[in-house]
Amino acid sequence: MNDISSSRPWLSRTFVDDRETVLLAKYAMFSRDSLGRRRPEPPHPYRGPFQRDRDRILHSSAYRRLSGKMQVFTGEMGDYHRTRLTHTQEVATTARTIGRALRLNEDLIEALALMHDIGHPPYGHCGEDALDEVMRPYGGFSHNRFALTIVEEMEFRYQRHPGLNLTAEVLAGQADRTEKNKLDRSSLLEVQLVDAADSTAYDAHDTDDAIKLGLVTLDQLQQVPLIHECVEQVREHYSELSERFLSKAVVHHLVNWQVTDMIEHNARELQQRDFQSSAEAMSSGFRIGPSPELAEKKRVLEGFLFQNVYRHPKLIAVRQQAHDKIQTLWRLYVEDPSRLPKKYQIRAEHIGIHAMAGHYIAGMTDRFFEDTYRLMVHSR
Ligand code: MG
User: Fold this and answer.
1) What is the percent of the chain where pLDDT is above 70?
2) What separation in Å is there between the alpha carbon of 349 and the centre of ligand 1?
3) pLDDT tens profile 69-112
4) Interval between CA 320 and ligand 1 midpoint (Å)
5) d(C-alpha 94, C-alpha 200), whole Å
6) Strands (E), the chain
7) Per-domain residue ranges of the chain
């Protein structure tokens, strides 16, 4: 495969490097500086290492299962709102838009974005809390850490070893998410950007979904200064919009405002600091994020969403049920490991049944979880 460039004169041997040299800023993570993979592999003729990581993640079964996992709202509430897969795609495109303008490595950004939520159990953060509680004596459960377990141990792509053999930078980026508040250095700018784009995406799409599902009205949301300003600015340009198109335009404006702010604020900061390498940016403590003014406005919006949407009685009821079912199913597997599929029984011998039961449940989609629960509980 590697002599593709000798048989194809149109392809330079340094294609990936040449392209990055032209496109990326000095503070970006260049593919040529990658620390590589645990199991070394020959370079691909036209895909850089982070592009290959992105493709491995995209083709993993954990990634595909994101389509059956809820973001905030469950499937019973309709089929309009975001799943964890569409959320992931929104994060990836938002991060790439900002990353391209800041001249960061888009391939690395995309790989990190597609990976960032693959460790989520069924039923979102409530599923994570339920597993973390029962697994606490056995090390607890974190969806960020579990994403690493998936790509290193649970995906099978190669006959010779488990895992996807991703680059050190993608693995370290995901590990940084787990340790976010404990790090005494900054992460790569690409890693920080994906984190910031995650917040950009969910602030906008949770607002959108909440309106569409009727959990809050645009009028109520206007108590939030950021939304109020969005409405005012949209009305300035489009005074004739009906209620339905007004809320669509407001959400669009909310995305655009955040993305533009992130680009302008960080471009200015990066220009002033003039980092000469990705390593210098990492050791400087510099943080990518919204401008301080927007950060404050986002905080108020997130407070509103927390009180009025994430804690909406409709959601609390679903969550409580899911929480109890997840813990019940976990206990059933712990009591009788023979109920696990064979390959997980074998893995349980190595990592312990408490962790294995959690990992098996965490891999399930919401629907597979419900089917399995019904089967397990009724066949007791
Ligand atoms: Mg996310």
Assistant:
1) 97
2) 32
3) 988 877 677 677 889 999 999 999 999 999 999 999 999 999 99
4) 22
5) 8
6) none
7) 16-41+49-378
pLDDT at res. 3:
52
Percent helix / strand / coil, the chain, rounded to 5: 70, 0, 30
d(CA 116, ligand 1 centre) in Å: 6
Q: Which one-letter amino acid corresponds to residue 27?
A: Y
pLDDT for the residue numbered 368: 96
Residue carrying structure tokens 């990836």:
92
Cα(21) to centroid(ligand 1), Å? 30
pTM, two decimals, is 0.95
Q: From the CA of 198, how far away is ligand 1's center (Å)? A: 5
| d(CA 273, ligand 1 centre) in Å | 29
Report the separation in Å between the CA atom of 5 and the middle of ligand 1, taken as the mean of its atom positions: 38
Q: What is the whole-number distance in angstroms between the Cα of residue 356 and the centre of ligand 1?
A: 24
Distance from Cα 113 to the centre of ligand 1, integer Å: 8
Angstrom distance (rounded) from CA 237 to CA 251:
15
Would you say domain 16-41+49-378 falls under CATH 3.40.50.280?
Answer: no
Ligand 1 centroid, distance to 197 Cα (angstroms): 9
Gap from CA of 191 to ligand 1 centroid (Å):
13
pLDDT in tens, 199-246: 999 999 999 999 988 899 999 999 999 999 999 999 999 988 988 899
Hunting for tokens 């906008």 — which residue is that?
Answer: 204
CA of 117 to the centre of ligand 1 (A): 5
Q: How far is the CA of 238 from the centre of ligand 1 (A)?
A: 32
- Write the CA distances from 271 to 103, 105, 379, integer angstroms: 12, 17, 64
Which residues does the chain have with pLDDT short of 70? Answer: 1-6, 75, 78
CA 60 to chain centre: 15
Which residue type, as a one-letter code, is found at position 37? R
* Ligand 1 midpoint to CA 118 (Å): 9
CA dihedral sign, ordered 120, 124, 125, 130: negative
Chain CA centroid to CA 230, Å: 26
